[in-house]
Specification:
Helix content: 10-25%
Radius of gyration: 22 Å
Number of helices: 8
Order of helices and strands: EHEHHEEEEEEHEEHEHEEEHEEEEEH
Oligomer: single chain
Distance between the termini: 19 Å
Structural class: alpha/beta
Length: about 375
């Protein structure tokens, strides 16, 4: 089988077009080969190399500290990289693994290719590319994830802040925060991990932490039943046409030894979400008598506001298809909620319940099965 390497031009037409190059996209391609459709698809990835969003993660994130990198189907990470890989940086180890995987199974990937828009044309779709060319397809499997759409909530006064603002997307090293007063915003695992990392490793820094809701730390092991229920809640939302929420938002966070130690050391001293950003920091009701806070809690001077407020689905290129439901999301259907209800020729992987790494594999297989069915091929 032929592999389209960096710089190769995409074919002008394919029965199945996969947009994206991360775990869900590779899983879908793997199963398309398994179902006899290896010569009827192509994958367009805008990244410069294999690895999906992992190649852009901060250097201090290791495989041991990352949310679990689930094995791709047919060939696991340990098989590809060896047994002693927990301490490897995720930003290099996962791309290495994904690249070897693409080679081993002969997956057809074109990169870097930027997708500008997808439109219906006749009985299929025309996808406009960044260089002005276009490709057509009968089916769309979108697997673009969320990394390219960092989310920062609108807070009054944000433009007035004279310090630095950045998002998880932009983080590189705790050394950047040496000598700074840093406010970390967010309640997910990235916010907690990076707050601890900056507090412990950024010389002469002072850290503060706030979020919309105080996270729940679960001291008990996370059970498979809890995981299934969390995924089911997210799935119910997307089947109803509501915007998806993250799985972590309904499961809480595991009380790891690192987090327990940070709580004992006073690093995880939580404050509620501020209401306004000022030139020098943030404030809560900005001195209002009704704020309920003491004077020293009304305003906080900081040098950096570090937003760890998550990501949204990177699907702006699908806007011409008008898939949004009145509830603000895209109504999904199918066995694993990967099929767009309004147009079953379009599948979304990494949207809603398939956003986790294990969910991406299951979604990839289901996407290939659905594609085979629509193309009249018996999946085996």
């Amino acid at each position: 089988m032929q592999i389209s390497r960096t710089g190769a031009q995409p074919a002008r037409h394919s029965d199945v077009l996969i947009i994206g190059g991360g775990q869900a996209a590779l899983s879908a391609a793997y199963f398309l080969h398994r179902f006899g459709l290896g010569d009827r698809y192509q994958m367009l990835d805008h990244a410069p190399g294999p690895g999906g969003a992992w190649q852009f993660r901060w250097p201090t994130l290791t495989l041991a500290t990352a949310n679990r990198v689930h094995d791709l189907p047919g060939w696991g990470l340990v098989e590809a990289l060896g047994l002693d890989c927990d301490e490897l940086p995720a930003a290099t180890a996962v791309p290495d693994y994904f690249g070897r995987y693409e080679e081993k199974f002969g997956l057809t990937v074109h990169r870097p290719v930027h997708v500008r828009s997808v439109r219906r044309e006749g009985d299929g779709f025309r996808t406009e590319l960044g260089d002005g060319s276009s490709v057509t397809s009968n089916l769309i499997v979108n697997a673009t994830g969320t990394w390219d759409r960092p989310f920062i909530p609108h807070i009054p006064g944000a433009a007035d802040f004279r310090g630095r603002q950045l998002h998880t997307h932009d983080y590189t090293t705790p050394g950047d925060f040496a000598g700074k007063r840093v406010l970390v915003v967010g309640a997910g695992i990235s916010a907690i991990q990076l707050l601890i990392e900056i507090a412990r490793e950024a010389h002469d820094s002072e850290t503060f932490w706030c979020s919309r809701r105080e996270p729940v730390f679960n001291p008990e092991p996370f059970t498979p039943a809890q995981g299934r229920e969390a995924v089911a809640r997210v799935e119910r939302r997307v089947r109803a046409g509501l915007p998806p929420t993250s799985v972590v938002s309904v499961t809480g966070l595991a009380l790891t030894p690192s987090i327990a130690a940070a709580r004992r050391d006073g690093i995880l001293s939580w404050r509620p979400m501020f209401t306004r950003i000022t030139e020098t920091g943030v404030c809560w009701d900005c001195g209002s008598a009704s704020s309920g806070h003491s004077d020293d809690f009304t305003h906080l001077d900081v040098d950096v506001i570090f937003w760890n407020t998550g990501f949204r689905s990177a699907i702006d290129h699908l806007a011409p298809l008008r898939l949004r439901a009145p509830g603000g999301g895209i109504t999904m259907t199918g066995r694993l909620a990967t099929v767009v209800d309004a147009d079953p020729r379009i599948q979304l992987l990494g949207y809603g319940p398939s956003a986790s790494t294990i969910g991406a594999n299951r979604a990839g297989r289901e996407a290939a099965r659905v594609a085979a069915e629509l193309l009249g091929v018996t999946a085996r």
